[in-house]
Each structure stands twice: as structure tokens, then as C-alpha cells.
């Protein structure tokens, strides 16, 4: 069902958040060591209590600037998968959150202006092509574009994450050496 | 066209003569470090179908492993204790020579103390505050565990060569003004994205005159400004610290005179006063004396941001012959045992204990709410790295961020206080 990155599409109901949603908010330290199933009950609670109850699988997070700033903690990325969030798109994404998301196969994109065109509950489509990240508000018809994912990252996305890519490389090495 | 420090580091490590901002390179890494999240790294590799989990390490001499975040294990539900057992098993199985268990301190300070990082190098740690090494002219940046798994197998990783911002701090910092205040000045005036995906490259008279501890604090905190690297030039202060410790020969980098910067930010260091960032971030920053009506419950000096000798010396100077206010608990957390011992030998710890501070062992707990946890409605002033909502316990607590001087002065008075009245 999932096709190459050239035509990758995510569609779902939007949950909107503001600027500088940091990884302490996404993944509160005091719940982080309890495992992802517990952590998900507390994700975002500092800004929106019981967020997990509002999420249906496939939903999309739409946020403002600097999403995922702060600690490098990977649970802040992986908890999104456990919650059922299909993609995150923000006006801008902090560096480590972006790299982690790509490496872990949990899609996170930046598209400046997206927070202005999406309201809570709108149906949103994120289309990732080689040329751009295209975000369409299906409810209103509004559209914004973000820069495409760098080519070097696309190979990671296509492999399904950096560990999948590493596995493929190590198997390839084994074959060529034997 | 000349190169910035970041360009030179990435060129050198990718076998190229010249790189420029926006290029993508695969660069060889000099050193990595990871704490107990090596357990998740190992498990994630197993789940991804990599047989045996973490098995391949390109150079065992280049990886430092330790325990610093929950140290020793502190949770009653035993998760951390079990994780530490697994961590020790992984270290033993792989035969990793540089494992410090719970005995050394916070990862970044241990890396600095023990000479695992040096000027001109490229260093990756599974921790956001890895920008800290820029304080000694070393290209440090954070990565996630899964990317680190790649690095451990290959010894290299891809990078975008970052555009650079020249941060020129002129003049001289006043009495009671520390590296932390320079960071707060930048975050307050220029926002938390001023360094996003960029190399912040610092210079100017105030930086030259600044202590190494002050520069290291700024480099550490630059990740809160979005930075990929935060680099300071190598001078005698850096060499005095690094030369007796370095494990490898090293070659510092300096920016070319015609290096190209995306922007240049000029700051008059002489005009910076003790500053405070109010909850719950780094954007709203005002002079400490404007928050004097804020009563505090807790005051913290420590962490990888401000647990160095200069920081503890400053707290001791302010608290000498005084007592921590009776409504306040004051936590002093040296960043490493080397610093702890130096502070002990200098008499600072005795001074602080006599002032009724809680001097705790080196670990990340005071910064992350693992200890000194805040209840709803409580107010903390800290010189650790972050004041995010919920970071130190209840999301209904309030965390103000300031220098060790401002924290210590506030610990004495019981409310946020400009430290200059004690200096």
C-alpha cells in the first residue's frame, strides 16, 4: 500500500498545536521510563490534557514553529506511532526531532504557514513528492508548500528508517563477501 | 572563498578540501558517547531484524558509555535498575573499554574531563546538549539512538554543512554577569530559532576574556537556540585545559578571514545584566531585578549547563557566611566527580553545606526532575539547561532560568534577586 516517497500521501483529521512544542511536553520525563503505552496517556498533557483520547488512527498533528525542540529523546517521536498519528507537519521542526523522525520512519515535515491554514478537526492531506511537501486543507481547500526532503534523507525514508537501511547494507556486505 | 569553523571541521572529516553551507557530506566521526539508552538502541536493532542487536562497533576505543540520567537507579518501580543491568550486560558482551557506570558524572563533562574530545574534532552523543564541545573548539552535535546505531557500525554519518551565524560579543562582561546571561541575552533578543540548523560561531573581546567554563555553558545552551554546532576558537585557555587530557593528537580550527556568514549578530557584552527567563521557555527574558516579587521554593546550580567549577565557586562566594532562606531548598549538583573533588579541595562544598545547601552527587537528576521534583504551584529558579513546562515534575510548577550567581542570590533572599548586591 505504501508507495515510494515520490508519491507518499498522508491524510487525516488535524490536531493543532502552537509554537515551540518541546519534547518535555511531548514526552514528559516523569512518564518516559514507564514505556510507550503509559507515556502516550501523558503526551501533550502540559498543554492539552487527555490528548490521547482525541486521537483516531491516521490523524495528523499540525503545529507552529520549532516543533520538537529540546531534548533528543526518541520516545517523543516513537510515542506518535503508538498514538496512531500518521504524520506531523509544522511551520518549522527542530533539528533533532526532524532527524529522529526520518531515521525512525515516523514522518515529520515542515511547511511554513501550515499553522495558519489549518484549524482543529480539519481534514488535512500531506503529499510528499521529490519537489515539495504539499499540505492541503481538504476542508477549506487552502494549500501550503514546504521544501522537499533532502535526497540523502529520502533513501532513509524509502528504506523505512535508518535501521532498516543498516540491515539491508549489512546483508549486502555479507552477500558480497561470501 | 574562506570557510567557517563548521565548514572546516566537516571538510576535514569528509576528506574534502572545501565544503560550503548547504552541501551534504558523509563525515567520519572521532568520538561518540551514549548513556543508558544504549539498551533501547540494542532492542530497536533487534526489532528491526538486525540479528543479535548491537554487534558491530567500528572502533571500540571511540565509544564512551556511562550512566548519568537516573544515577544510581532511583525509581521504585525498578525500570531504571533493570535497564542498568541490561546496559552493563551489553558493555560486557561487546567488551567496551570506556564504561564509567554510575561513577563519573554527567556524560558531557566526563567527555571533557577525561580528554575524549579535542579541538577540531567531530563528536556525536545521543543527547541534545552535545553542542557543548564547541566551547573547546570541537564540533559536537546531538543525534538520536537509531542514527547512533548507524554511526557505531560505520564510523560516519551524513550531514548538511550548516550555514553559520557570527556571534560577536564585544566589550567585557560586568561583575556578576556570566556565560548564562549571554545565552539568555541572545534567546531573549533574537529568539529560539536564531541558530536553527546553523553553526553559531562566537568571537569578540568579551568571549576572549571569558572563562572556558562560561564559553562551555554558552555552547551547551546553544541547542536551545536550535544550533547544530556552537563553536568557539581555540586559544591558550582551551589548550591549557585540553593538552594534559587529550587522548589523541588534535588540530584546532579557526575561521578564515573571508569566511561567509549568513548573518552577523553584534552584542555589547558590557551592557548585559543578570538576566532571567520566565516560564516556560527561553523567549521571555528580563533583568533579574524585574522579577524580585517572585518567591521561590527551590534553587538549583548544576547540570551540564552550569555544574562546573566556576559555577560552584560563584555560588560559594555568594553563600559564604550566609544561609539558604528557610523557605527554600537549594540543590548544588557538580557536573562530574572531577569537579566535585576540585570544589571540595577548594573549600566550596564546605561553604555551601554550611549555608545549608544540598550538595548532591554528579548526575542529571537535578535538571530532569528525577530529584528535587516540583509540586503543583511550586516555583524554582535554576541554572540547569531548561525551564520547560513539566520538566522538573508537575506541569503546574513554574521554572525560571538564570545564572548560578542569580540562583545563589535568590536562594539567600527567598525571591528572585539580582546577584550584584552580594558581589
UniProtKB/TrEMBL annotation, chain A:
InterPro entries: Aconitase/3IPM_dehydase_swvl, AconitaseA/IPMdHydase_ssu_swvl, LeuD, LeuD_type2/HacB/DmdB. Pfam families: Aconitase_C. Gene3D superfamilies: Aconitase, domain 4. Keywords: Lyase. Residues 54-106 form the Aconitase A/isopropylmalate dehydratase small subunit swivel domain. Belongs to the LeuD family. LeuD type 2 subfamily. This is 3-isopropylmalate dehydratase.
TrEMBL record, chain B:
One of its GO terms (molecular function) is 4 iron, 4 sulfur cluster binding. Residues 60-280, 286-414 form the Aconitase/3-isopropylmalate dehydratase large subunit alpha/beta/alpha domain. SUPFAM superfamilies: Aconitase iron-sulfur domain. One of its GO terms (biological process) is L-leucine biosynthetic process. It holds the Pfam family Aconitase. Keywords: 4Fe-4S, Iron, Iron-sulfur, Lyase, Metal-binding. This is Homoaconitate hydratase family protein.
Amino acid at each position: 500500500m505504501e508507495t515510494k516517497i515520490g508519491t507518499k500521501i498522508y491524510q487525516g483529521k488535524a490536531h493543532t498545536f502552537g509554537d515551540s512544542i518541546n519534547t518535555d511536553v511531548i514526552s514528559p520525563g516523569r512518564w518516559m521510563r514507564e514505556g510507550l503505552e503509559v507515556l502516550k496517556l501523558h503526551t501533550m498533557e502540559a498543554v492539552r490534557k487527555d490528548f490521547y483520547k482525541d486521537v483516531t488512527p491516521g490523524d495528523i498533528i499540525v503545529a507552529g514553529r520549532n516543533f520538537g525542540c529540546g531534548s533528543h529523546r526518541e520516545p517523543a517521536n516513537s510515542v506518535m506511532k503508538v498514538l496512531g498519528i500518521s504524520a506531523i507537519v509544522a511551520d518549522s521542526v527542530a533539528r533533532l526531532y526532524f532527524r529522529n523522525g526520518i531515521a525512525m520512519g515516523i514522518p515529520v515535515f515542515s511547511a511554513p504557514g501550515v499553522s495558519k491554514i489549518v484549524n482543529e478537526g480539519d481534514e488535512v492531506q500531506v503529499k510528499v513528492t521529490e519537489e515539495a511537501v504539499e499540505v492541503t486543507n481538504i476542508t477549506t481547500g487552502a494549500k501550503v508548500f514546504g521544501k522537499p526532503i533532502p535526497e540523502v534523507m529520502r533513501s532513509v525514508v524509502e528504506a523505512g528508517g535508518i535501521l532498516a537501511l543498516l540491515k539491508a547494507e549489512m546483508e549486502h556486505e555479507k552477500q558480497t563477501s561470501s | 572563498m574562506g570557510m567557517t569553523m563548521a565548514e572546516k571541521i566537516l571538510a576535514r572529516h569528509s576528506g574534502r578540501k572545501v565544503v560550503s553551507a548547504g552541501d551534504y557530506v558523509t563525515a567520519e566521526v572521532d568520538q561518540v558517547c551514549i548513556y543508558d539508552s544504549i539498551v533501547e538502541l540494542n532492542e530497536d536493532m533487534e526489532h528491526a531484524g538486525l540479528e543479535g542487536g548491537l554487534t558491530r562497533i567500528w572502533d571500540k576505543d571511540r565509544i564512551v558509555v556511562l550512566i548519568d540520567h537516573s544515577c544510581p537507579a532511583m525509581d521504585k518501580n525498578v525500570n531504571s535498575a533493570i535497564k542498568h543491568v541490561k546496559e552493563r550486560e551489553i558493555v560486557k558482551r561487546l567488551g567496551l573499554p570506556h564504561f564509567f557506570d554510575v561513577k563519573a558524572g554527567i556524560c558531557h563533562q566526563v567527555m571533557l574531563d577525561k580528554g575524549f574530545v579535542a579541538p577540531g574534532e567531530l563528536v556525536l552523543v545521543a543527547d541534545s546538549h552535545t553542542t557543548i564541545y564547541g566551547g573547546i573548539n570541537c564540533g559536537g552535535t546531538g543525534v538520536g539512538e537509531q542514527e547512533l546505531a548507524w554511526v557505531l557500525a560505520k564510523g560516519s554519518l551524513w550531514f548538511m554543512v550548516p550555514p553559520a551565524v557570527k556571534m560577536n560579543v564585544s566589550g567585557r562582561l560586568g561583575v556578576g554577569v556570566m556565560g548564562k546571561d549571554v545565552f539568555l541575552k541572545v534567546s531573549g533578543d533574537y529568539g529560539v530559532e536564531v541558530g536553527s540548523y546553523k553553526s553559531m560561531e562566537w568571537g569578540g573581546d568579551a568571549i576572549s576574556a571569558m572563562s572556558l567554563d562560561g564559553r562551555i555553558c554558552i555552547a551547551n545552551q546553544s541547542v536551545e537556540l536550535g544550533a547544530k554546532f556552537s563553536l568557539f576558537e581555540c586559544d591558550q585557555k582551551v589548550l591549557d585545559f585540553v593538552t594534559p587530557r587529550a587522548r589523541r593528537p588534535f588540530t584546532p580550527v579557526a575561521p578564515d578571514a573571508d569566511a561567509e556568514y549568513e548573518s552577523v549578530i553584534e552584542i555589547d557584552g558590557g551592557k548585559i545584566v543578570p538576566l532571567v527567563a520566565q516560564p516556560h521557555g527561553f523567549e521571555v527574558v528580563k533583568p533579574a531585578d524585574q522579577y524580585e516579587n517572585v518567591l521561590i521554593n527551590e534553587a538549583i546550580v548544576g547540570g551540564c549547563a552550569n555544574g562546573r567549577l566556576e559555577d560552584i565557586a560563584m555560588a560559594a562566594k555568594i553563600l559564604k557566611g550566609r544561609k539558604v532562606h528557610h523557605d527554600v531548598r537549594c540543590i548544588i549538583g557538580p557536573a562530574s566527580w572531577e569537579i566535585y573533588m576540585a570544589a571540595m579541595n577548594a573549600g566550596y562544598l564546605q561553604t555551601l553545606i554550611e549555608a545549608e545547601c544540598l550538595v548532591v552527587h554528579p548526575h542529571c537528576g537535578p535538571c530532569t526532575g528525577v530529584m528535587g521534583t516540583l509540586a503543583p504551584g511550586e516555583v524554582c529558579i535554576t541554572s540547569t539547561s531548561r525551564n520547560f513546562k513539566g520538566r522538573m515534575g508537575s506541569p503546574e510548577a513554574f521554572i525560571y532560568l538564570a545564572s548560578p550567581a542569580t540562583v545563589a542570590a535568590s536562594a539567600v533572599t527567598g525571591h528572585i534577586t539580582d546577584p550584584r548586591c552580594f558581589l
